[in-house]
Amino acid sequence: MNNLVNIENLLMGVGQPLVLIAGPCVIEEESRAFEIAAYLKEMTGDLQIPLIFKASYDKANRTSIHSFRGPGIEKGLRTLERIKQELGLRILSDVHRIQDVDTAAAVLDVIQIPAFLCRQTDLILAVARTGKPVNIKKGQFLAPWDVSNIVEKIRSVGNDRVIITERGVSFGYNNLVVDFRGIGIMRNTGCPVIFDATHSVQLPGGVGAASGGQREFAPVLAKAAVAAGVDGVFLEVHTDPDNALCDGPNSLKIDTLAPLLSKLKRIREVA
Question: Where is the DAHP synthetase I/KDSA domain (predicted)?
């Protein structure tokens, strides 16, 4: 069983074009979010790569209490809705609380279950019942075959619009590693599989009160994942990653993307 997931007339899955999910980790200023979204729209239009814009309105799982979380649900969703309407982009963001699900579903085209919450049954069911496409971020503490139980939870309420995202697995302390066997294993669920190249090079809690990262390796892993058969690539990008307020060390500078995406598209065509 290989299901295609329809996201506002964008088909994702086997036999379809490679999809890019990209944007800043978190909404900082509205103007910067628009700048990044507009750049991504123009670039992917030139490359003919389908785009889903991603940004978080609230990062509730930051390492430190002092870390920037974002503008919050009201202001953040207002920004995402403007980007959706004015730029004509499909929008993805993550939901951390059950009480936020319906409000977020009114704006988002894809609702993401954060990796740390991918075992939270009540949250998963609340998101599934919206009928929206659901992107599961596979927890870094899970084996690839464990995601079948999460998929079953979503399908149990009649929602078959499920996407799985690989983001690496914990490898000792403050490190992640990617087991590419997991791509094939998760494809056996019949769901489209996305590879999160930038979170896979994150060093969780690697600098004490924040996470580090090795962004230089994200392109290497992305190319390997596309060759392994993923249906899309997830990249956190920023105009100035070194000064980003969240996940800067593993985010890519936005003006470096075009050559990488061109290579990924060619690998997809061969794979």
Answer: 9-265
pLDDT at residue 232 tops 80: yes
Q: What is the pTM of this model?
A: 0.96
Residue with tokens 């659901």: 134
Distance between CA atoms of residues 253 and 242, nearest Å = 9
**So what's the pLDDT on residue 1?**
59
Residue 5 C-alpha from the chain's centroid: 15
Q: Where are the beta strands (DSSP E) in 95-201?
A: 110-113, 134-137, 162-166, 169-170, 176-177, 193-196
From CA 56, how far away is CA 71, in angstroms rounded? 9
> Residue 260 is inside which H or E element, if any?
helix 257-270
Least Cα distance to 195 among 161, 170, 218 occurs for: 218
**Total residue count of the chain as it appears in this document:** 271
**Does CATH place domain 17-270 in 3.20.20.70?**
yes
For 2-20, how does the pLDDT look when each residue is reduced to its tens digit (9 = 90+)?
789 999 999 999 999 999 9
Neighbours of 242 (CB within 10 A): 10
Give the residue from 136, 264, 135 showing the smallest Cα distance to 197: 264
pLDDT digits (tens, 9 = 90+) for 79-137: 999 999 999 999 999 999 999 999 999 999 999 999 999 999 999 999 999 999 999 99
- 48 pLDDT exceeds 90? yes
